[in-house]
Design brief:
Layout (H helix, E strand, L loop, with lengths): L1 H12 L2 H18 L4 H21 L6 H9 L1 H19 L4 H15 L19 H20 L6 H24 L11 H5 L1 H19 L7 H19 L7 H8 L1 H13 L2
Helix pairs in contact: 2-3, 2-7, 2-13, 3-5, 6-7, 7-8, 8-10, 8-12, 10-11, 11-13
Length: 274
């Protein structure tokens, strides 16, 4: 039982789970736009592991003590995981087209400067008041939607614009619970949404974002209506989970259950969409 618990903790806190969520969002984009590019999806998976673990390592002195203790206790395993992720990222990156590299470059720079200072006055983009939430949403939207679309030369239709707005709003909505959870740990100068407008108002914004996704979904033509109703179900489930989000919940509520939403979304697509 202890081995299973430690393995599960490593899966979640080693950012394998969040990487699987990013992978599933990418595969959702493939299904929605009939794209086939498994190498790109694999790159998204391994690059997410690498970037999230590197960000956490660079923030080691800022994150809460429990997570810092866990990272130090699992240092060797994390080094092995990150080394593997780095090698596979380089392998897949070598096969990228010029267009894919051009789209990826600003996302890479945003990730690098998320915590690394680029001026003496700033300790990283995440510390610019109010920017953190939008930077995460832009990066995830670019990586899981626009990178596949540009790779397949499908970046000019109205559906692409609507899907981009939907993906951005979805990431905003499911990131807000993390900001609510961290409100007691984040420095006041970060000015995260819950710090600025309060927890309840932050939840309202997340719910509005999810409602807008559903409204926009009815504007997009669906050859298979199962896609529409799966989207409605996932947005409704996301709303329910956001309503029950609080500061004193277990880290697994956000780090596992909230992050599981894209995974469930993709699994439903696989099962119900022919």
């Amino acid at each position: 039982m202890q081995v299973l618990r430690r393995s599960f903790e490593f899966y979640v806190f080693g950012n394998i789970h969040v990487a699987l969520a990013a992978y599933c969002l990418t595969k959702i984009s493939f299904i929605q736009f009939e794209i086939s590019n498994q190498s790109l999806a694999n790159f998204v998976f391994f690059s997410t592991i690498l970037s999230y673990n590197m960000i956490r390592l660079l923030q080691l002195n800022e994150i809460n003590s429990m997570m810092a203790i866990w990272i130090k206790a699992n240092k060797r395993s994390l080094i092995a995981l990150n080394s593997l992720a780095l090698m596979l990222c380089v392998y897949y990156l070598l096969n990228f087209s010029l267009v894919e590299i051009i789209v990826l470059l600003p996302l890479l720079l945003a990730t690098v400067f998320y915590v690394i200072p680029f001026k003496k006055k700033f300790s990283g983009l995440r510390n610019i008041p109010g920017l953190k939430l939008f930077l995460i949403a832009i990066t995830w939207t670019g990586l899981t939607l626009y990178l596949p679309l540009f790779s397949a030369d499908l970046n000019t239709s109205q559906q692409v614009l609507i899907s981009g707005a939907q993906r951005f709003l979805f990431i905003i909505a499911i990131t807000i619970p993390f900001d609510i959870r961290d409100a007691q740990f984040d420095l006041p100068e970060l000015h995260t949404l819950p710090q600025v407008i309060g927890i309840n108002n932050s939840k309202i914004i997340a719910l509005i974002a999810l409602a807008l996704i559903v409204v926009a979904d009815f504007w997009i033509p669906h050859e298979n209506t199962n896609l529409l109703w799966i989207d409605v179900f996932i947005m409704s489930l996301s709303m329910l989970m956001i309503v029950f989000t609080g500061m004193k919940q277990s880290r697994f509520y956000t780090a596992f259950w909230i992050e599981s939403l894209p995974i469930l979304w993709y699994l439903l697509y696989l099962i119900l969409v022919k």
